[in-house]
UniProtKB/TrEMBL annotation:
Name of the featured protein: 4-deoxy-L-threo-5-hexosulose-uronate ketol-isomerase
Record organism: Arsukibacterium ikkense
MF-aspect GO terms: 4-deoxy-L-threo-5-hexosulose-uronate ketol-isomerase activity; zinc ion binding
Catalytic activity: 5-dehydro-4-deoxy-D-glucuronate = 3-deoxy-D-glycero-2,5-hexodiulosonate
Cofactor: Zn(2+)
Keyword Metal-binding: yes
Lineage of origin: Bacteria, Pseudomonadati, Pseudomonadota, Gammaproteobacteria, Chromatiales
Broad class of enzyme this protein falls into: isomerase
């Protein structure tokens, strides 16, 4: 097993106005996730959130603390959110096993020393998507499923954005320090997510797109409302969104995505919305 670790530094919106396509992708797109038998970690300096993945195929993948973290173990001062988008797998946390089916999640609190990822079947391996944020309190580990989360039915087929928002890790479902995660599934015939677009100056967000055919793409919109930019995103890639940026997307087919947030406010509805008529 190897660990692929990189850092992404903050950007100023005035600078991003001048980015070309390659620069946008370099700073905001995470396109190396879900590699077999590897722990992939992208350390962002937006709320110091880590976006990552673990795909155990031939052996277990351990959650290790790379040297740049300057930590004795990964969760020494962090919390972790995990959502499985592959086959059945198990997450072992300090000797306790949690079996995660497809789309099930696990919150792991600060202080857990040994975390490892396992697949039930190497031919259909588990694919664990990870978000981690700094923590100040050790909350209990909790297994979360589609049956014990809050579900919001949003949008309509007429506006091409009929979707179900599964709030797996928000503060009325599980206690966290600042991390929130959930999973949104678009209905057949719908391609727009998060419309009207919004931003929240009090936290960052990352979108991970999946269940997208290899020959299909999502056009992810970002930037300030009056200075929008776009990034074409393939299956199992993520986009990091600064607090000053909107986040929305439109696909060439329906798809699903995981949203993860961290910042000072745990109120899910703390956002500033911008209708299409207000954007440029």
């Amino acid at each position: 097993m190897t660990v692929l670790f990189e850092s992404r530094y903050p950007t100023h919106p005035d600078d991003v106005k001048h980015y070309d396509t390659d620069e946008l992708r370099q700073h905001f797109l995470v396109d190396n996730l879900m590699q077999p038998d590897q722990l992939v970690l992208c350390y962002t300096h937006y709320e110091r959130v880590i976006v990552g993945s673990a795909v155990p195929v031939n052996a277990a993948v351990k959650l290790e603390a790379p040297e740049p973290l300057k930590a004795q173990f990964f969760l020494q001062r962090r919390e972790l959110g995990i959502i499985n988008v592959g086959g059945t797998g198990t997450v072992s946390v300090d000797g306790t096993d949690y079996q995660l089916q497809n789309t099930e999640a696990l919150y792991v609190g600060m202080g857990a020393r040994e975390v490892s990822f396992h697949s039930a079947d190497a031919t259909t391996p588990a694919k664990f998507y990870l978000n981690s944020a700094p923590a100040h309190h050790a909350f209990p580990t909790k297994h979360l499923t589609m049956d014990n989360c809050t579900v919001l039915q949003m949008g309509a087929l007429e506006t091409s954005n009929e979707r179900a928002i599964h709030q797996l890790m928000i503060n009325d479902v599980v206690q966290t320090c600042q991390l929130q995660m959930g999973l949104t599934v678009l209905k057949p015939g719908s391609v727009w997510n998060t419309m009207p677009a919004h931003q929240h100056d009090r936290r960052m967000e990352a979108y991970f797109y999946f269940n997208l055919a290899d020959d299909q793409r999502v056009c992810h919109f970002m930037g300030q409302p009056q200075q929008t930019r776009h990034i074409w995103v393939a299956n199992e890639q993520a986009v990091v969104s600064p607090a000053w940026s909107i986040h929305s997307g439109c696909g060439t087919s329906n798809y699903a995505f995981i949203w993860g947030m961290a910042g000072e406010n745990l109120d899910y509805h703390d956002m500033d919305k911008f209708p299409a008529s207000a954007m440029k």
